[in-house]
Amino acid sequence: MSVLVNYLIIFWGFFMIAIMAIGGYFMFRKFLKRLPKEDGKSTMDWETYYVNETKHMWGDEEKELLDELVSPVPELFRDVAKHKIVGKIGEVALAKNKQRITRDILIEGYIIATPKRDHKFLRKKLAQKKIDTTPYEHFFQQSKNDYDADWKQKHQS
Fold first, then answer.
1. d(Cα 31, Cα 18) in Å, to the nearest integer?
2. HEC profile for the chain?
3. Same-domain pairing of 28 and 44
4. Could you tell me which of 21, 106, 136, 147 has the fewest CB atoms within 10 Å of its CB?
5. In total, how many domains does the chain have?
6. Do 14 and 87 lie in a common domain?
7. Cα dihedral angle (84, 23, 115, 152), rounded to 10 degrees?
8. Which residues form the domain of 9?
C-alpha cells in the first residue's frame, strides 16, 4: 500500500509540474504580445486599435460569416482567436481604405490572421458555405511569416 501511495505522490508531483509549465508557457506568450514594439505599441494594442476603428464597418451578414468561420476553434479559445482575427480584418480594411467590411476583406484578413495549419479548417468551412477559394489561393500559399514583414505593400489594391 505504501508503494502505491509513493507512486501516486510522484505522479501527482509530475502532473502539477506539467500543468504549471503549460500555464506558464501561455502566460509568457501573452506577456510577449504585451511588450511594446519600435512604435511604442504592442501587438495587442494594435489589435484593439483596429477592432475599435472598424467596429462601425461590420454588417450583420459579415458578423454571421465570421462566427461560422471561427466555430471550429475550441470554445475556450474562440474569443481570443476572434479578437485577433477581427483585428487583422480591420487592419486589411483600413490599409485598403475600405468603407465597410466585405466578404472578400473578411476572408483575406482571416487567412492572413490564421496559421497555415488552420487553413484546412477554413477551406472546409468555406466549402460548406459554397464559397469559391480560387480568388484567395495566393493568400493560402504564403506562410504567416510572409505576411508579417511587408504584407501591406503586397496586398494593397
1. 20
2. CHHHHHHHHHHHHHHHHHHHHHHHHHHHHHHHHHCCCCCCCCHHHHHHHHHHHCHHHCCHHHHHHHHHHHCCCCHHHHHHHHHHHHHHHHHHHHHCCCCCCCHHHHHHHHHHHCCHHHHHHHHHHHHHCCCCCHHHHHHHHCCHHHHHHHHHHHHCC
3. no
4. 21
5. 2
6. no
7. 40
8. 1-34
Judge contact between 101 and 93, C-beta under 8 A. Answer: yes
User: What's the one-letter identity of residue 80?
Assistant: V
Residues 69-115: pLDDT tens digits? Answer: 898 888 988 888 899 999 999 999 999 999 999 989 999 999 988 88
Length of the chain: 157
Q: What is the mean pLDDT of the chain?
A: 86
In this structure, the number of other CB atoms found within 10 A of the CB of residue 104 comes to 13
What amino acid is encoded at 142 in this protein? Q
**Cell numbers linked to 125:** 468551412
88 and 46 in a common domain: yes
How far, in Å, are 23, 29, 77, 110 from residue 35 at the CA level?
19, 10, 21, 24
